[in-house]
């Protein structure tokens, strides 16, 4: 794993932002979202007030341990008919809440830092994990454009994510993700297997006993 340091400390946080390269075109930006956190958390709250978190059903008939919602033009859904993107919330039959400006700008800034200058997300999937919740190893293949990267933001309790290879059985690296960290992966790394180990019990000072992960995608 290669580590680089920004020469220019962020004016708001004083801290140099650390960027860890985890793949040829994949990066973890430690604490990248912290300067915007006071705008991000209320925006997240108002989205889940409009489109409440729910445990969706996998095509195989299992309820996901992660609760999900979305904002933006398209939201990722799953039910007995499969995984796909939909322009409406299947619970309310309303369009998903709009993607807040602060979300889009943060995702674009992170993408740019990782070498994806013209990322335009049309979907933000919100995953909420409570202790014990996990996401098994999978690939993200439901988007129309694999040219676009995916950008993720972690909030709340820490998680261990598995960054795998191109076949399910390939070895994976374990990477810890903390509140405010962002991960960007695209290009040759876009179809890597990845997952989240069961969240350990704990309490985050800002978010309590939960972890949120937001993934920004070009889905349509
Ligand atoms: C992709 N979410 O919603 S995002 C998902 O933390 C999803 O909720 C996870 O996977 C979560 O589809 C992980 C961060 C991530 C990290 C490494 C990856 C995604 C990755 C490596 C390759 C591909
Ligand atoms: Fe995924």
UniProtKB/TrEMBL annotation:
<dbReference type="InterPro" id="IPR027450">
    <property type="entry name" value="AlkB-like"/>
</dbReference>
<feature type="region of interest" description="Disordered">
    <location>
        <begin position="1"/>
        <end position="20"/>
    </location>
</feature>
<dbReference type="InterPro" id="IPR037151">
    <property type="entry name" value="AlkB-like_sf"/>
</dbReference>
<dbReference type="InterPro" id="IPR005123">
    <property type="entry name" value="Oxoglu/Fe-dep_dioxygenase_dom"/>
</dbReference>
<dbReference type="InterPro" id="IPR004574">
    <property type="entry name" value="Alkb"/>
</dbReference>
<keyword id="KW-0560">Oxidoreductase</keyword>
<dbReference type="Pfam" id="PF13532">
    <property type="entry name" value="2OG-FeII_Oxy_2"/>
</dbReference>
<dbReference type="GO" id="GO:0035516">
    <property type="term" value="F:broad specificity oxidative DNA demethylase activity"/>
</dbReference>
<feature type="domain" description="Fe2OG dioxygenase">
    <location>
        <begin position="120"/>
        <end position="220"/>
    </location>
</feature>
<keyword id="KW-0223">Dioxygenase</keyword>
<protein>
    <submittedName>
        <fullName>DNA oxidative demethylase AlkB</fullName>
        <ecNumber>1.14.11.33</ecNumber>
    </submittedName>
</protein>
<keyword id="KW-0408">Iron</keyword>
<keyword id="KW-0479">Metal-binding</keyword>
